[in-house]
Structure formats: C-alpha cells, structure tokens
TrEMBL record:
The lineage of its organism: Bacteria, Pseudomonadati, Pseudomonadota, Alphaproteobacteria, Sphingomonadales. Keywords: 2Fe-2S, Iron, Iron-sulfur, Metal-binding, Oxidoreductase. InterPro entries: 2Fe-2S-bd (IPR002888), 2Fe-2S-bd_dom_sf (IPR036884), 2Fe-2S_ferredoxin-like_sf (IPR036010), 2Fe-2S_ferredoxin-type (IPR001041), 2Fe2S_fd_BS (IPR006058), Beta-grasp_dom_sf (IPR012675), Diverse_Oxidoreductases (IPR051452). Transmembrane segments: none annotated. This is Isoquinoline 1-oxidoreductase alpha subunit. It comes from Sphingomonas xinjiangensis.
Length: 165
C-alpha cells in the first residue's frame, strides 16, 4: 500500500507501487484533470505539483511518492480564483483545453517560486506542448497572473493590467 496526500486529502492506493501516478489519479481517485498526453514525459499534459515541484505524473510511480503532498488541477480553487486560472480565462487562452490543466499546474508552481517571471522564465518553466498554438497569449496571461498574485493588478480593472509595469 502506498500512502500520500492528494489535494489535501490523505490517500492510500492498494495498487502495484510501480503504477504511474497518472493512472492512480485518473483510475483510482477519479481525478481526470490530469491528462494522458504522450506517456513519455515530453508533452506536460500530466503535470502536477509534488511538494512544490512540477512533476510529470506519467513518469512518477506511486511507490516513489510515499509521504508526499500532490496537488492536481482539481486541488486549485473550484471557483477559479487562483491567479493563473483568472488570467488564462480573462485572456481567452484555452482553446481545445486538453493541455490547460498541465499548463495551469506548471504556471502555479512557477509563480510560487518566481513572483516576477520574465518571458524567458515563463518559456523555460512551461515546457508543455499545445497543439492549438496558444503560446503568445499564454506568456502574456502568465505575466498578468504574476501581477494578480503580487497584488499589482485585478481582473476587474483591465486598464490596470494594461498599464502595469
């Protein structure tokens, strides 16, 4: 049995410890926001936060996560009040939406460690593949999310974001 915390809830998986976290989350916990993309760790669709570090759920085994804290996109506020959620929605970033949960998780980890990321910081921290090509809007939205997180902008005042330093 493997025990760790998922979205602030203790879990105990009675699965083979070699089971990828992705399948434990999706099949045993019914947390389907973490997506299966490539299965090789190249696309980022399965990105989750493990103890404050971005990890690829398709590459992590549940046995290796004993005692950790895992946050999936479902662990963010349901009312979409997280700065990354707010900014991506405001900028109409999501298109098909398949890659968005992994991108949201990558951006949330980035903003926890870097409150004022440059465009290059964002490009490095968000390696996720998006077939819809949202990258220009994504970089702008994550910059806006950082402003929101710092308290330099709100979404009620669009000009605040446009005029923010």
């Amino acid at each position: 049995m493997t025990r760790f915390t998922v979205n602030n809830q203790p879990v105990e998986y009675k699965m083979d410890p070699r089971t990828p976290l992705l399948w434990a989350l999706r099949d045993a916990s019914n947390l389907t926001g973490t997506k299966y993309g490539c299965g090789t760790g190249d696309c980022g669709a399965c990105s989750v936060d493990v103890d404050g570090t971005l990890r690829l759920a398709c590459q992590e085994t549940i046995g290796g996560l004993e005692g950790t804290f895992v946050t999936t996109v479902e662990g963010l506020p349901r009312d979409r009040s997280h700065p990354v959620q707010q900014a991506l929605i405001a900028a109409n970033v999501p298109q098909c939406g398949y890659c968005i949960p992994g991108i949201v998780m990558a951006a949330s980890v980035l903003l926890r460690t870097n409150r004022n990321p440059s465009d290059d910081d964002i490009k490095v921290a968000i390696p996720n593949v998006c077939r819809c090509g949202i990258y220009p809007r994504l970089i702008s939205a994550i910059t806006d999310a950082a402003r929101i997180a710092r308290g330099d902008a709100t979404l009620d005042g669009a000009d605040e974001m446009d005029n923010a330093p």
